[in-house]
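lol ok so funny story. i was supposed to be doing the assay writeup but got distracted and ended up predicting the structure for this chain instead. priorities right. anyway since i did it might as well share w the group, maybe its usefull for someone
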Amino acid sequence: MSDDDFMQDSDPEEYDFEYEDDDEEEEGNVDVENKYYNAKQIKLDNPEEAIEEFLGVPALEEEKGDWGFKGLKQAIKLEFKLGKYDEVLILYSASAIDHYRELLTYVKSAVTRNYSEKSINNMLDFIEKGAEDKDAYHCMEKFYSLTLDSFQSTNNERLWLKTNIKLAKLWLDRKDYSQLSKKLRDLHLACERPDGSDDPAKGTYSLEIYALEIQMYAETKNNKRLKVLYQKALTVRSAVPHPKIMGIIRECGGKMHMTEENWKEARNDFYESFRNYDEAGSFQRIQVLKYLVLATMLMKSDIDPFASPETKPYKNDPQISVMTDLVGAYQRDDIHRYESILQANKDILADPFIAENIDEVSRDLRTKAIVKLITPYTRFTLNFAAKHLKISIQEVQEIINFLIINQKLKASVNEGDGTVEVEKIEDQARVQALQSWSSNLGSLLTTTISDAEGFRVEDMSQSLGTPSASGFGSNYLDGGSHPGLMRGAGGLARGRGHKGKITSGLMGMFNK
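and the output, tada:
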């Protein structure tokens, strides 16, 4: 609720008009309003004076009411902006923390429950977004503690949950995993039924808690617990979560899949994360889109990550164009263009996750480049490949060793002079084909000459009337009836009485 729209409060009684107010009360209200709006007019140019004016508003009210509540809110925001967090730190008689403590005294009776809850929650959001240093974080933690103490007696479970979730976020940002773990346990208990199952009525809060815990396990590299919670979070159906929460969960899921080298699932999760961040208007969408492009390259996919309607508008975004160029170079196997893009945009490696995984993409592209480079050669030096690809000799040797170990290259490396002897793949295939053909031919001849019925030496002598066993008689070539020969030759002659078929069949066999 905006301070200017004070007539919009949720309590219906605040819409009522009092027609019989006495003049003194009207004058009092006018003085309070004037002081409040005068303070708002000067808060940009003179925030120090505006603070004094806002703090003077509550004193003009005989009883605690809306105007005093609003005046304190504005004063606290200005104090926080100016770094007046705590009287111990600023040597003031009062500070943002002291005035926030005073503000909380209004929530029990001076303002409506809905208005106070919304105002306090907005105040905590403002403090969270504005905290930039250690003192600000200390102030924020104190605000959370005061809020929890104040609302504990009012039995406002909703605000209690929201404030504790904000406190858990603070500890996550500070990487205080010990405090965070304790707080998450309390929050899980608050969102459970007596039987230990999740309370469907608190599904939205449960997802926020899962998101915090998933982030904690992602940062601590506990993939086992991360995977369990990730799967559990996706099964929550009773919630209508903020899209940013689902963006966080999907982003962590994508990173988890990347560590498992499950590129396809990682790409799907990053895509879903991007969609949710985009819907929420979060700037994290740009970073996740980079992860999506990275996963696409690791998939060795030809799919354009910017082909979908959701990602297409970001293709020419200055922060994304570098990744777009990398994808183009990768899909064209243009190692030189790829390397030049990385060299000219080293800031892209500032993200630890990208820096950790881009090496896999680079290695894959360099491996393909080396295989393509050495194809015409049977002998080359490591230095030759290193100069051509513009990488170190050590990297070339590592890639060659990788290819040899994975039986993708049959070669030997002479570490003394840095030469590599390659056994040509074409020669290997030719030798194997010749060996196979020779073996099959020998088997065929053995079957034809030694095992076939009617084609043994003694049968030939009897039929031809000659002791020669080295040739075929004219009867054979002229189509003599010898069915055993036809069977033994494996069907080279297809039937009796086919003149010349045996000759042509055998000669064709030997000429192959």
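The first strand starts at residue 379 and ends at 381. The mean pLDDT is 78.
back to the writeup now i swear
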